Amino acid sequence: MQRNILILSLVLLALLSGCGRSAPTRYFLLESALDPVKADSLPSKNLRVAQVTVPDYLDRNSIVSRVNGQTELVVSQFHAWAEPVAHGVRRVVQEVLTPPMLAAGFNVLAAGDDTRADYVLLIDLQRLDGNFDSCAVLEARWTLKNRHDDVIARGIYADAEAVNGKTYDTLTAAESRMVRRMAEHLGNRLPELTRSKP
């Protein structure tokens, strides 16, 4: 009898320990998918991409998706950004802007470079999420200022891309492509704006 109780206790303990395990968290990065840029010297004029602002619902590590495109959000427990969303957007924008701005005679300052910039680009990310088997959406406002803090230009950028599948790989890949397209749009606009304004 005691032997049966001992075996039953061991089986229950094994089952309970198995229930206590959770799936490992998977981490994702926004990616520009560009080759690194090489330069032996950099222009003296500078552009700084300021810290990106994000809405409170995105100011977390967990990846956020929507339910049926409605107002209900799902905050994933086991799928997270490897860095804050604001940092990822800023990094991708810097990477994508570097080639066109170098061609226009501007160095895009690295995130840790405290050199005073001739121009500052501010990005206010208002939405970056999506729902599976539907679409991902990006909405942002941007502002370009000169070294005297005068506003040179402002704009709104919006984009959407189909998410074909129910995996976070497909959702985050779509979000990466939208951030890259936003940066490419800015890369087309900024050289002209910096040439035409003091």
From TrEMBL:
PROSITE patterns given in the database record: PROKAR_LIPOPROTEIN
Short name of one Pfam family: ABC_trans_aux
Domain annotation ABC-type transport auxiliary lipoprotein component: ranges: 31-185
Domain of life: Bacteria
Coiled coil: none
Protein name, UniProt field: Membrane integrity-associated transporter subunit PqiC
